[in-house]
Amino acid sequence: MWVRIYAVLRKELKQLSRDKMTFGMVIMIPLVQLLLFGYAINTDARHIPTGLVNLSHSSESRALISDLEASQSIDFQQQYSDIHSAQQAIVKGEVRAVLYLPRDFGSRLVQHPNYYSGQKAATQAFTRPVGQWLVDGSDTVITSTIKALQNMPLQSVGNRKVEQAVTSFAVVPFFNPEQRTVVNIVPGLVAVILTMTMILFTSAAIVREREQGNMEFLINTPIRSIELMVGKIIPYVLVGLLQVGIILGIGHWVFSVPLRGGLSSLLLAALLFIFASLTLGLVISTLAKTQLQAMQMTIFILLPSILLSGFMFPYEAMPSLAQWIAECLPATHFMRMIRAIVLRDAMLAELLKDSIWLIAFTLCGLFIASRRFRKKLG
Amino acid sequence: MSQLAIEAKGLSKQFGQQIAVNQLDLSIPKGCIYGFLGPNGCGKSTSIRLLTGLLEATSGEVRILGEPLKGNEESLKRRLGYMTQKFSLYDTLSVKENLQFVASIYGFTGQRARQRIDELLSLYDLTAQSKQYAGSMSGGQKQRLALACATLHSPELLFLDEPTSAVDPENRREFWERLFDLSAAGTSILVSTHYMDEAERCHALAILEKGHKRADGSPQDLMAQLPASVIELSGNALREVKQRLIQHSSVLSAAQVGAYLRVLVKDNQPAPIDFIQRLCPDHQVALTRPNLEDVFVVSTGGRHVG
């Protein structure tokens, strides 16, 4: 039995090392995607292209505009003479938001409570907003960035000293004090990339045997299906671990993502997830007849794994139906585990629920795959 | 019973509505080369897959090497060899690596594996190519490698599914010499083909059409017992004469071979020469010896040739 598993394993490694394209992808997929996502994905919107309709032309309005630009979240790129042409510009997509400052901006400003320090607030009855924001509300990230400006202090516009406001709550961000998105993205990327490569490689590797006619020969030899499966899977377990190393290593050196958790917990969690993904690949391989079909099914799994697993959007924000679907995906569980281990120094024992789920998933997958595989032999 | 390599009774395979193999009976003695002759899609490959246990039969019984196939598929696999229609080894492995892989699958290790591989490399004339990738070899070399892999474990019974379809005539000759070597060493061989000249080399053969066995026997017997006469006709306007002849119900087929028209006349005409001469008074007519193609045409009712 071991001789045959070893024979399949050795053959698979040789084929993998000679398939320059696949071998390249093993390294390049995590490398390129990490650098790309690490730099590109940022949930803080900055430099939003913004238009301006300034009917006030006062020194206060210019002071307000430079204050807003100093925040770096918006970039005044266009001036419009009236509100109508500004709206057109939003429709055309020239700008994402427009600030409208009315003719009576000056008188509105002096009546506004934010213009004074709290105690000297003017009578509320006369206060009106000093201006209006028109926002392309289709993008919620941009809308919320603009909304954050709603209660902006206005003291500095009149060259007054800004008084330190006392907030209702103090917020202490643990684990990521600088609030860098990349800290959350890098561990999540491990789950996404492993989902993609592990499912795709195993399913394609097995379907290829069938597609190229090797399976017909193999079935007529004394090799058993379990020996073939195990022999084909082991090289990809190593590939998966290599990719975990690449992503977390580069995440650490290039993006200074902390690696707080213990290596053994990390290794064990990664192995659990790799096995779960590989068995999913096996199940796909018993369904797909061509490598193209295997690829399509992988994408079918991959998209929800990216969108629902908590990689892009917080799991808690999803409606309960989506949460149920997400719970079925191994990526969701691994996403929780690896973020907990890498960022919050959790032990695997504290993540028992997710670990058990991954093990159960693997066993179920193996059971289904071996049953379906047997059928094909018969 | 033990003298038979393959014995099948009422073997049938149905895919949905389509019957691929219909009530096939076979008894193939040990040590002979037995051929399946038939057009594409006649059930040759399906029959071979049924006999190797690769497919499960819808009905019927099969005994391979004296043992019932059902229930013994796995143990019989060590005694069977199978060379698939399509090249089924690994293109990105070298000749030697392919052999090593197959050797390990059959449980050959260490010295025993090395010895057997060297033996096969020299036997199949592949020593010079042993480091070459299988994918970059010629059709003939690939086929020799496939045969080497299929016979690595010295099977008692070897199945070959259209082994020479991708090979030039010279390599085909050589390949058949190797088959006779294997046969002389005691291996029983079942080979499917759609080449008449290959079928003629077999000790015995079955003609398959649409899943039915139409004829069975040695090529010589089949030719001698042909229930029709073969007449060669020469002269002018052969295409037009052919159209005229095949209208007649006693003419099974008429096919042009060079300057001749080869006409098959049913045995219900007691004097076939006179019969044809009457139809074509201006042409030379002569009786000739039947060949295997004639047997094929007669057993398939002339539906595939001419």
TrEMBL record, chain A:
Where in the cell does this protein reside?
Cell inner membrane; Cell membrane
Question: What Pfam families does its record include?
Answer: ABC2_membrane_3
Which keywords fit this entry according to its UniProt record?
A: Cell membrane, Membrane, Transmembrane, Transmembrane helix, Transport
Main localization of the protein described in the UniProt heading: membrane
Q: Which PROSITE patterns match?
A: ABC_TM2
* Alphabetical list of Gene3D superfamilies matching this protein: abc type-2 transporter like domain
Chain ranges passing through the membrane:
21-41, 185-207, 233-254, 266-285, 297-315, 355-373
Classify the protein's membrane topology as the record does: Multi-pass membrane protein
Name a GO molecular-function annotation.
ABC-type transporter activity
Query: Which GO cellular component does the record give, naming just one?
Result: ATP-binding cassette (ABC) transporter complex
Note the InterPro entries from the entry: ABC-2_transporter_component, ABC2_TM, ABC2_TM_bact-type, ABC_2_transport
Residue span(s) of domain ABC transmembrane type-2 = 139-376
What protein family is recorded?
Belongs to the ABC-2 integral membrane protein family.
This chain's protein is named Transport permease protein
Upper lineage is: Bacteria, Pseudomonadati, Pseudomonadota, Gammaproteobacteria, Oceanospirillales
From TrEMBL, chain B:
The UniProt keywords, alphabetically, are: ATP-binding, Nucleotide-binding
Q: What is the lineage of its organism?
A: Bacteria, Pseudomonadati, Pseudomonadota, Gammaproteobacteria, Oceanospirillales
- Gene3D superfamilies tied to this protein: P-loop containing nucleotide triphosphate hydrolases (3.40.50.300)
Q: Molecular function terms in GO for this entry?
A: ATP binding; ATP hydrolysis activity
Query: InterPro entries, per this entry?
Result: AAA+_ATPase, ABC_transporter-like_ATP-bd, ABC_transporter-like_CS, P-loop_NTPase
SMART domains the record matches: AAA
Q: PANTHER family attached here?
A: ABC TRANSPORTER G FAMILY MEMBER 20 ISOFORM X1, ATP-BINDING CASSETTE, SUB-FAMILY H, MEMBER 1
Keyword Nucleotide-binding part of the UniProt annotation: yes
Q: What protein does this entry describe?
A: ABC-2 type transport system ATP-binding protein
Which Pfam families does the record cross-reference, listed alphabetically? ABC_tran
Q: Does the keyword ATP-binding apply?
A: yes
> Which positions fall inside the ABC transporter domain?
6-235
